[in-house]
Amino acid sequence: MSNEETNKKTRLIVLAALLAALVFLATAYILHIPVGGNGGYVHVGDAFIYLAAVLLPTPYAMAAAAIGAGLADIATGAAIWAIPTMIIKPILVLFFTNKTEKIINMRNVVATLIAGIVGTVLYMLAEGIMIGSIQAAFVMSLVGLVQPLGSAIVFIIVGLAFDKANIKVKYHLLAA
After folding, report:
1. β-bridge pairing 33-34 and 41-42
2. pTM over 0.85
């Protein structure tokens, strides 16, 4: 492996770790609002999962999502959700593209909506399995629809700021 390849991999690992830390902080502590009696909570951590998805190659973004969100569940007393979270959050990465110079484009804006719906449905299924009732989980999951909206708004605001600063080009984050 050449020095240039090693440097690129190191940069990607460091950026993935930084984004995992941001996912953790935004999930566990920034606008962390407990809801319902199921140990769940509303947060804007998904905004940083979306950001990881548009800045990093998919495997790195998926790792940042799983690690950051999973650790947040454990740290906030919602450890029962850590395994479903570490399965669900990486799936949300798949709807975004990192192959354009701009973070905010039509595909990534639409991806926030798709990721929000898919995430809500997958958590509803996980909760249904845990409590033994998909119907009850569906009713409780309706509150969870607020979270994807907040995360989408934060992602778009941060993404527009990063686009204005030309972050992807400046830091060589364009996908090959």
Report:
1. antiparallel
2. yes
| Rounded Cα gap, residues 108 and 58, in angstroms | 14
State pLDDT tens for residues 27-65.
Answer: 999 987 877 666 667 789 999 999 999 999 999 999 999
* Number of domains the chain is built from: 1
Domain that holds residue 54: 3-170
Which long-range contacts link 123-129 to residues 24+ away (Cβ below 8 Å)? 123/40, 123/84, 123/88, 126/81, 126/84, 126/88, 127/38, 127/40
- Residue 176 covered by a domain: no
Strand partners, 72: none
